[in-house]
Amino acid sequence: MEIWHIWIIAALLLFIVEIFTSGFAVICIAVGALGGAVATLLNAPFWGQLLAFAVVTLIALFTVRPLMMRTFSKKSQPSNMESLMGREVSLVNPIGKDIMGMVKIYGDEWQAVSDNGEEIAAGAKVRIVGQDSNILIVHKL
């Protein structure tokens, strides 16, 4: 067995390990091992193979890994609260200066306050413009 075979076997094993891990770091090391194999095929001395391995691994860490992270990492879904932003609803209970109102959305009631402190009567149409903890901030339409 020649040395380039060892580099290729190491790369294949590292690719397999990457399947069971996350973060895409092991795949960069596997690509570095392929760089070592190429250096071996170009008749580089052992220190040259190690140098090729290190350089290709670093290049992969700074180029391939960020690309893989952007492509395959999970995109965060908006929370239930965030999905309510911009929705137009009716007030169930009025909003007063020191009184929180209530809005009903899909059968759930949420506490609501006015964005500018104005009083809003029950039944008025409002738009959800923000949140403070689990209290919705609404604007009268």
From TrEMBL:
- Keyword Zinc assigned to the entry: answer is no
**Transmembrane stretches, by residue range?**
7-34, 46-64
One Gene Ontology term, aspect cellular component: plasma membrane
Cross-referenced PANTHER family: INNER MEMBRANE PROTEIN YBBJ
> Which membrane topology describes this protein?
Multi-pass membrane protein
Q: Per its UniProt record, what InterPro entries does this chain match?
A: Membrane_assoc_protease (IPR052165), NA-bd_OB-fold (IPR012340), NfeD-like_C (IPR002810)
**Residues covered by the NfeD-like C-terminal domain:** 82-140
Provide the protein name: NfeD family protein
Keywords associated with the record? Membrane, Transmembrane, Transmembrane helix
- Main location per UniProt? membrane
Where in the cell does this protein reside?
Membrane
Its domain of life reads Bacteria
